[in-house]
Amino acid sequence: RESQILKDLQRLRPGDIAYGHLHATTQVSSLVCGGHFAPYFIYRDPRDVVVSHVHYVTDMAPNHVHHPYYKNTLRNFDERLTVSILGRPEMDISFPNILDRFLPYINWTKQKGVLAIKFEDFIHQQETTLKRIYDHAIQNGYVPNIHRDEA
After folding, report:
1. Tens digits of per-residue pLDDT, 114-146?
2. Cβ neighbours of residue 31 closer than 8 Å, sequence gap 6 or more
3. What pTM was computed for the model?
4. Exposure string (b/e) for 89-109, b if CB count within 10 Å is 16 or more?
5. How far apart are CA 62 and CA 79, in angstroms?
């Protein structure tokens, strides 16, 4: 799977925009941070992630593999939240705890050249965050066709 991700990344051309859930492995990090990309890491507060997970699995995704368990076995929000935090290591279907879900990505915050942005900043500091994104793109070779204040 990682080899396919690397091939897909290598096919990108200047000006292309791509997104995905990329684990911060050595090979992927080396390619993404190698000077040909303007990499961004957008992440959410893990507390918000588990709350959203509860609502999503319980109420919005009836075909989700864990929906019956959340809807029919767990009796209330607190029980569902606990499971979303702790995971279910006893399951045959992967359901890791919140820390293990974040670990493959967390090293993006330590990579030189990656602009790490909290999702919540898009809401609470929108203008500042968008300017940071614009500036990061410029620093990495993007040639804009509009002025920063218009972006």
Report:
1. 999 999 999 999 999 999 999 999 999 888 888
2. 6, 9, 10, 37
3. 0.84
4. eeeeeebebbeebeeeeeebe
5. 18
